[in-house]
Amino acid sequence: MTNLPKIYAPQEIEGKWYQFWQKNDYFHAAATSEKQAYAIVIPPPNITGSLHIGHALDNTLQDCLIRWRRMQGYNTLWMPGTDHAGIVTELIMERKLAEEGTSRIELGREKFTERMWQWKAESAGYIVSQLQQLGCSCDWKRERFTLDEGLSKAVRTAFVKLYNQGLIYRDTYMVNWCPECNTAISNLEVEPIEVDGNFYHIRYPVKDSDVVLEIATTRPETMLGDTAVAVHPDDERYQHVIGKTACLPLCDREIPIIADAYVDREFGTGTLKVTPAHDPNDYEIGLRHELEQRTIFTQDGHISEAAPEKYVGLSRWDCRKRVVEDLQNLDYLVKIVPHRHAVGHHDRCGTIVEPTISLQWFMNVRPLAQRAIEATQNGEVRFIPERETDRFYHWMEIIEPWPISRQRWWGHRLPIWYCNACDAVTAAMETPQQCKCGASDFHQDEDVLDTWFSSGLWPFSTMGWPEETEELKTFYPTSVLVSGWDILFFWVSRMIMLGLGCMDKVPFRTVYLHGLVADEKGQKMSKSKGNTIDPLETIDTYGTDAFRFALANVSTPIPYVSLSESQIESGRRFANKIWNAARFILMNLEKHPIPAEVDAIETEQETLEITWIRSRFSHTIKTTTDALENFRFYEATQTLYAFLWHEFCDWYLEFTKQRIAQDEPAALWVAADVLEQTMRLLHPLMPFLTEEIWQQLPRNRTQDDKSVTIAPWPEPTGENSTAETTMATLTEVIESIRSIRGELNVPIGASVEVHIQSPNSEVRERLETYLSQYLPAFTRVADITIAESLQKPPASAEAVIGELAIYIPLADVIDLEAEQARLSKRHQQALKDVTAAQKTLDNPNFVERAPEKVVAQKRAQLERLLTEQDKLARSLAMLTESGSENGD
RNA sequence: GGGCGGGUAGCUCAGGUGGCUAGAGCGACAGCCUUACAAGCUGUAGGUCACAGGUUCAAGUCCUGUCCCGCCUACCA
After folding, report:
1. Check: complex ipTM more than 0.90
2. Chain B positions with any atom < 7 A from a protein CB
3. Closest nucleotide C1' to the C-alpha of A8
4. pLDDT for A259-274, tens place per residue?
5. Residues 6+ positions from A682 with CB-CB distance below 8 Å
6. Topology of A729-887 in CATH?
7. What topology does CATH give the domain A28-157+455-514?
């Protein structure tokens, strides 16, 4: 007896097989190969992070693609690695340090980065082992880290190259500043969040005049940095004050009243206070009018010396309170009106961002963005779903200079050196030897690069760039990039631009952007909402394959995909179903081992069910392959689910039981063969289970068949429509009989007689040939009669399939009323369908204009429906009659 | 303000270029411990495809408008 347990226990086999794959080096891609290359670079997770549901989805889909292509015979590379993830990682470390009673600043740069590296060393293996638990078939020998020596060299090379092209430059400009993180950040890192605020209406007296301008602002504290008041040049209300001077309350300063078309006459009072140092629009106005830029905030968000002394040192929020109080006391405050508006928050730490003028390094991404657009238009890059293309174009069109310097420590330090003697700026790979002024003392820029700069190089930096490696020749551009749509701008577009900038080639041919995982209510999963599904807990409870199957199954091309426990549960049941199908086959194979010359036997004894299952399987191969080619993972899962469960298990294995009972084991051998091949089809989705079963199944040991991981992807062998039609008739008959038994509550132990009437000799012949063979497997039958015409036996239940009628005498058990209700319902439905079909065909335009094929189909349908309807009507009439007779 | 996606069974979702009687999973109900699987099997119920027009012989599918939901994006102080 076979030793397979009744219930599939994923925990016991997953680790074993992953080690087996690793040991045999199946995931390693050769740098050079005769085979066609297929490469994916992993979106590198944070080195200190852990696997969340988004990773699970993203990496499941990638692994699925990689495993599928590997089986198809490609030289597949899945490049793994991790990201230092800049600010996020630093922030977590800062929290740790705070717990220890120290801080980043206290430690200093050197000690702090030391701690970071130490932490990296401790936690680096964690995310990798989690990806391995998920079954990811990454080429671990090639694992990279964004701060590795090689990748750091790539970063410096890219920087210097772009600097020399004039695309990277230093400038004083308004940037978004995070006072908490003490660094500049890019627009993308600013998240506008709606908050409840106020409009503060403030009086600004005009000098040497009785006029007082009423100005509304949401940020009264910024008035300390006001250097002008603006009105629209054509605003009739304010013509008389243009060019005059306003007295800035609380500050004892005089500021000009200027005219600028930016001001919206319709909005508020039509007057605008101008704070060039702390508002992007005011900054622009300031430039146009050469206004003073008064920076009233310090880097950590407190009031600077540029403000009146009494406010210096206050926090932004305390200052707001004080300013409002003072305005009120001095009668400058008109009113406070509640106002809900969007305020920019730093996406990493949640702090309200302060627009500030600052000296930063920027990258002029316009030229590269233009090239990215062209490359996409030329079809060098393709986005799936297609709608993402427009989102990409839009972003590329409105893109602004990218501030790339961060006043942080964890990252790639800018390869910029300043001459200590003459301040000359040099971009270089290493510390320069000598300045053009003759001096040889330099200091390197203190800033590090935005973390997305290094991850933007990922597709080629991981392959050894700037060296001209074999890997680059073989795998660049990579085949597909898989990621959530939420980082299209952050990462994907930067990779495209930097790929074009550094390699002159796009980094990947296809970008597949999947949805984000939401819960069953459509809410995005997040820790704060407490609706997350933890991948590792899930794997523990349900098994990796069940989880992967569920993830692939929900990944339809919509922005948010709903995942619920019940879907993972469904995956688990599916795994168990397959397990038991395998058990059934293996158990029976012990009694009926496959002879060496199985192929010959199979051909000789090819029966309807064998031809049928082979036909259906061929169809399944075709559909599954097509689904994967088009990134329709949900279609692959559904196809395989339906085939395995509802065709292979529900029907084919039931036929097999009957064949075994008749001592015709060929059906069993075919079952083993089909299951073996199905395990190959399913392997990309459920790698562990399929390997376990595949290893146990007998197969023609040909060449390299040590693992399903490297087994060839099945090819369709062709479908057989005759067999499928015949089988359809048989299954319909069987289902009708089961339906009668079910609805009339015929006990399972009771044998029934089945009388079938059909005017079609061909159908009768088929039924005669197969029904006696198959029927006993599905229902207890005492006797089967098949005839061209026969009398409906008394007290019998009836089912109608087109011109075919099935009668089951049920004298002992039949409930006439129940049977009448049953037939009546069927009759009503038939009538409805007849009416609909009739209506279509009665329309002369339909017959004239619709394609012949469609008309013919409709006619055949109507004919069949009419026959059914007629038969049902007559039987119903008879039944009513006999019913009333009984009643009399 | 602009744009995108969505609204199909109680729930979550499928329904290439219009053409079988609109499907699946989960849930519900009824009956079954049938010797691979009760994590199973069998049967049943359940939908005016958001709404209103239009194009067409034919619309869940294409067009227009409306209403909801979600998201992205924009400088309204």
Report:
1. yes
2. 3-6, 11-16, 19-21, 24-27, 30-32, 34, 36-45, 56-58, 70-77
3. B39
4. 998 888 888 888 999 9
5. A578, A640, A644, A689, A690
6. Helix Hairpins (1.10.287)
7. Rossmann fold (3.40.50)
